[in-house]
Amino acid sequence: MRDWLGVSDAEFYDSERISLLPMDFYYPGRGRSGDLPPRRGFAATWHPQLLALMPEVQLTLLIGEYAQSHYLGSTAKRTLTETVRAFGDYLPSMIPLVHPSPLNFRWQAKNPWFAEDVLPALGMEVRRILQA
Question: From the CB of residue 64, how many other CB atoms can be counted at a distance below 10 Å?
């Protein structure tokens, strides 16, 4: 993730500048085709309270289908791939991304536009915000 953002370890772990807010604080375990979904209602209940404590958030990275569904609702495209490809539709406040797991190497190989278009735009947005 640090490489995708174009930030140093020090920048990434500086909680005054970068914050992480998972869709759930509990790992639900593995399912047949990956991790099970976060608990229903968790993000809707807790995220507004937590985000109220972070009033200066300028960019939200929506990593994965669950975050994209929750935050984009009906503006999300039909698939995760289509949503990520349309990342420009959600700027300047959000950027939908795939999970930065090495397990996504096949997806990234099938979608070279991600590295060519999305990652440079992500890096520029992050740098713009961090330099402000």
Answer: 21
Q: What is the mean pLDDT of each run of 10 residues along the chain (132 residues)?
A: 96 95 94 90 97 96 97 97 98 96 91 98 97 88
Q: Which architecture does CATH list for 2-131?
A: 3-Layer(aba) Sandwich (3.40)
Single pTM value for the model: 0.93
Query: How would you classify residue 73: left for phi > 0, otherwise alpha for psi between -120 and 50, otherwise beta?
Result: left
Which residues, 6+ apart, have CB-to-CB distance to 121 below 8 Å?
Answer: 87, 88, 91, 95
